[in-house]
Amino acid sequence: MTDKPLPASSVLGRSIHTFKPRRSRITPSQRKALVHAGRNLLTFTNESLRSTYLWPEPNSPLIIDIGFGNGISTVALAEANPENSFLAIDVHTPGVGDLLTEIHTRELKNIRVMETDSIAVLEHMIAPESISGIYTLFPDPWPKARHHKRRIVQPPVMKLFHSKLAAHGFWHIATDWQEYADSIIGLFEQPKNRIAWSGGIVHRPDRPVTHYEQRALREGRAVTDFRFVKCNQLID
After folding, report:
1. Which residues contact 50 (CB under 8 A, 6 or more apart)?
2. What is the third-level CATH fold of 28-230?
3. Do 90 and 68 form a contact (C-beta atoms < 8 A)?
4. Is residue 94 within 8 Å of residue 26, measured between CB atoms?
5. Spatial distance between the Cα atoms of 13 and 175, rounded to a whole number of angstroms
6. Where are the domains of the chain?
7. Residue 176 known to be catalytic
8. What is the pTM (predicted TM-score) of this model?
9. Nearest Cα to 64, choosing from 126, 14, 153?
10. One of 140, 176, 182, 225 is an active-site residue; which one?
11. Where are the alpha helices (DSSP H) in 69-154?
């Protein structure tokens, strides 16, 4: 977990975050990647992302990858879709270092990385209806009922994401926690969300199997993928 102060967000409340603070040792290679990240590592500001930081193709579709772990899926997505720009956001410093290393090694030009709270970034740095897609692959399921307020798939975040997606923009979610999957289905089937979103469970896309996903499969947990597409304005 980064020691840098996290920006405030009013979406979930200032004291509520969708991630667990964790501390891990940073390897020399990870530290080197962080020190020499250059323009690939962005910092939080209260200004529009597009006006502050530019990708090589500034008008390309922007995809946001939230909670990318060690970045293996982010790299695969960016290599498979060079016409898109990707913003990868996580708070786990070693994973940020790993992804920056891969960006440098593979000479990828279409990924930028942020080590901060993704909800605050979406709230303060992303203009309405300006992004083409969001990935949240294996977000923390927060299985205890008292922690459900920390889940990323919940009404206030759904409303925020919907407002930032362009027309026909997508939100791709994957989880290995069946109760969370059932909760996601229930949320998107609510009447106002059935009007605002289309989609549901989809076949697993062609992406690398992450270490987390491998562990889930070894432990006998089924993986559920969802893809929802913005189709109408939300009704308050």
Report:
1. 58, 62, 127, 130
2. Rossmann fold (3.40.50)
3. yes
4. yes
5. 24
6. 28-230
7. no
8. 0.90
9. 126
10. 140
11. 72-80, 93-106, 118-125
